[in-house]
Amino acid sequence: MATTTETTVADGGGPGVDTDTGKGLHPGALGMVTSLILAVASAAPAYSLAATIAFVVALVGFQAPSVVVLAFVPILFVSFGYAALNRRDPDCGTIFTWASRALGPRIGFMGGWAIIASFVLVMGSLAQVAGQYVFVLFGATGIAADPTSPWVLLVGLGWIALMTLVCYRGIEVAAAVQRALLLLEFLVLVAFSVVALVRVYTGHAGTGAQSPQLAWFNPLNIASPSAFVSALVLMLFIYWGWETALTVNEETKDSRRTPGRAATFSTILLLGLYLLATVATLSFAGIGTTGIGLGNPDNSGDVFSAVGQAVFGSGGFGGGFGTVLWHLLVLMILSSAAASTETTVLTLGRTTLSMGDHGALPRIFARIHPRFSIPHVSTIAVGLAGAACYVLMNFLSHGQVIGDAVSSCGLLIAFYYGLTGLTSAWAYRRDWRRSAQDLWLRVVLPAVGGLVLVGAGVWSLRNDWDPANSATSWTLPFAPHWHIGGTFVIGVGAILLGLVLMLARQASGARFFRPAKG
Q1: What is the CA angle 43-48-49, rounded to 5?
Q2: What is the number of other CB atoms lying within 10 angstroms of the CB of residue 1?
């Protein structure tokens, strides 16, 4: 299969028609609802909000809801590009395959590598949160208070192993687990938001509480462009993951249309959920630097632990009922991290499968289990890579590097999301005359979304360079002895590592990089 020539089929294939690429996956195993569930669950709404809101508030204060909305716009535009490219060529490699065919194998390889690097880097944080919340759930707060505890590490590794096993047993098992986890997550997050707002409006919130205001949605009140862009890149993290619906496209009914629709609908669903939760949390807790205030640095790593007890633990919601709700909130964060770990393994297993099938990675990654119809070698490799990365980061700088690794994902996300939007515009550059819909949904809007995200990623590099914006830092051991932020080092280092691996793979004579004959 030559990836440097145009081998995609034309738009078409009526409803219910699936594309059989010969990879050996289970076609037609997922429907629209399950695809939507996988897309939303992969974004890990509860975990993402808990880990991100306080940092966004530190940058833009009460204008956080405006950033939630504005970050959604380029994400929505890029989702149109995903849908258009998937309709043209439903391949589980997504941007790796699409960019390889439209822009060349080297750009395609780096798109695939950005997915691999970002998902592997975030697995450490997901596993750590899952490990901590297991102990919080059972009242062992002393152990949970130390995120680098050997016990937390052991439980976190256990979660990675468990979620890898779930993915190994087949797409249907993985989807069933996601349905249960996402249902709990949605119900508790909505309950938390509603109770918080009720307490604010009835005067039973803390002294820092404020009723929601329309002014919170005005981005012109943000102090500086730098703060806005930094907050925007952080917000990419909470939307990140919805494209999982596209990575299981070859296992979805009507593979040309359903995955793209599920991805787009998931971004809209996430917007509604994030706005509700952000406004409720901001209104109840305020932006103060003490107590449950979102400006308190002690709350930055996990907002819901601090605010949740205040929301559920007193007043009309106190007593035994409040205790139950609090434990459900803890279980929500745990299930969110676990669900995202599962979809991380699921997504990466299929990305590396496609890269192996096309020759960008060794062929062994394309092997399919004869019984479970899943890329078993890729799935195991992803689990092992995530576990190894987690162990390494747990012992670097007392585990603080894990936070910087998550922050560095913003650059990688902006790159491959932006690349997808630009690839769509390029791939359809000659087809836009067919209709106004093709012009806007396949060319103009994806290009705008892609340019905004790439620009935001590049802009964020300036802030990431400053050690003050990272938990860790690194000093160049020779002149000029630059002192660089850990977020910059990890993000740029991941990209450079991908370039080295690409050059090494090309030097090995991989067929993926060979010019097409004829």
Answers
A1: 125
A2: 11
